[in-house]
Write a structure and sequence with these properties.
Layout lengths: L1 H25 L4 H8 L18 E4 L20 H9 L2 E8 L2 E7 L9 E2 L3 H15 L28 H5 L17 H7 L3 H6 L15 H18 L5 H10 L8 E4 L12 E3 L1 H12 L3 E2 L2 E2 L3 H7 L13 E3 L6 E6 L3 E6 L4 E7 L12 H16 L5
Antiparallel strand pairs: 1-5, 2-3, 2-12, 4-6, 5-6, 7-8, 9-10, 10-11, 11-12
């Protein structure tokens, strides 16, 4: 009797699940099932730094590796107790310091190591804007002030979109209607992450504010920028991809130590607003490139004036072109930032790059940013290793 009751209960559950699935698919919400299968059903409350294993990806080919030279103070560089406790508390994966173009310190924990490939999340936004600067320099795109609808004619009937520019997508002032939330299953950001066709999804939506007059941090804006870049590339070469362009223009010239992976949607479009997967040493090279205004070992990979513009405040004092600015801190710094605390921090006055990667940031206060603390602790490690101030 009990067995028969359990069988009917199981059949009822399957039936309800089938109806829910059918309803989600019929209403265009099939992405919810994908999201569920890649998060809660594998024990994760949100997207995570190892989820390239559950996404379609495109390879970012590496060339001849250029290892970081070791800093002469590296043998004496030691973790501070305060930083050690913070990294444990925040479930950090990696903490790395580059000083004067040399690897001074690196620490890996949990199951991670120097060759661990993890998700950049929104640090990719900065990389996409770097590629925009190169594309403009090559004449593929007219410039930051080029009308957006030149590349996205599907939006031409939207009067607000018609006045938006390519550059406004990078400064987050395009006016595109968006809700940037990561934990609500009903947020368009979640749908964008798990959509089978990210371009179609975004081009079906509209603008809500006058371009240039309203700042709103938006993954959608960078994804639209990735679409612009991809269309510009394909106009020159129908086989071109964003991953291939990144490989040719930055990945190989920077001498990355391994191929990267870039998440794609179901039809092969890179998720440009996020999801470049590589290791801490490689992420640090993007910071070093920004520190030197786009120059890498004597070769100008990105126009210097474009990089200067990236790190100059725009509509907000804390944001330039896809780069976060903290110029009121002491010392001042700027950064690439991503979900769950992926950071590449550039401290110009110290000629220092600080990389922090991890599975979490502050659980109790997820809006709490520890970047000034990471900078302070990195400076302390450097000073102690060089003998300045002693231990």
């Amino acid at each position: 009797m009990i067995a028969r009751g359990l069988r009917w209960l199981l059949l009822a559950f399957v039936g309800v699940a089938g109806l829910v699935t059918a309803g989600l698919l019929a209403t265009g919400n099939g992405f919810f099932l994908t999201a569920l299968s890649r998060t809660y059903l594998v024990g994760e409350p949100t997207a995570n730094i190892n989820d390239h294993r559950r996404f379609a990806t495109r390879t970012i080919d590496a060339g001849e590796p250029q290892p970081w030279p070791m800093h002469p103070d590296a043998p004496r560089a030691e973790m501070t107790p305060a930083l050690d406790a913070l990294l444990d508390q925040q479930r950090a994966a990696a903490f790395l310091i580059v000083k004067d173009g040399q690897l001074l310190f690196e620490d890996y924990r949990l199951q991670y190591a120097a060759d661990s490939r993890t998700n950049s999340f929104s640090m990719a936004k900065t990389v996409v804007t770097m590629l925009l600067g190169i594309a403009i320099d090559e004449g593929l795109i007219e410039g930051l002030e080029q009308p957006l609808v030149d590349w996205l004619p599907e939006l031409a009937n939207d009067p607000l979109a018609a006045t938006a520019t390519v550059g406004s997508l990078s400064t987050m002032t395009s006016g595109y209607d968006w809700d940037e939330r990561y934990y609500s299953p009903f947020s368009p950001t979640v749908e964008l992450y798990y959509s089978n066709d990210v371009t179609g999804f975004l081009l079906s939506r509209s603008f809500a504010h006058e371009p240039g007059e309203f700042f709103y941090y938006s993954s959608a804006s960078t994804q639209l920028l990735a679409t612009v870049l991809t269309r510009a590339l394909k106009k020159r070469d129908a086989t071109a991809t964003l991953s291939g362009y990144l490989s040719e223009k930055l990945w190989q010239p920077l001498g990355m130590n391994a191929a990267g992976l870039w998440h794609t949607d179901g039809i092969g479009m890179e998720l440009g607003y996020c999801c470049i997967n590589t290791n801490a040493r490689n992420f640090a090279k993007f910071g070093q490139l920004l520190l030197h205004a786009g120059n890498w070992q004597g070769t100008q990979l990105i126009p210097s004036e474009f990089v200067v513009r990236m790190v100059t405040p725009g509509e907000q004092s804390y944001y330039g072109y896809s780069t976060w600015l903290s110029y009121d801190e002491s010392p001042p710094f700027f950064a690439m930032r991503g979900h769950l605390g992926q950071y590449v921090i550039v401290v110009p006055s110290a000629k220092m790059i600080v990389v922090r990667l991890g599975e979490e940031r502050d659980r109790e206060n997820p809006l709490s940013l520890k970047l000034p603390i990471y900078v302070r602790e990195a400076l302390a490690i450097s000073a102690a290793a060089s003998g300045v101030g002693g231990r």
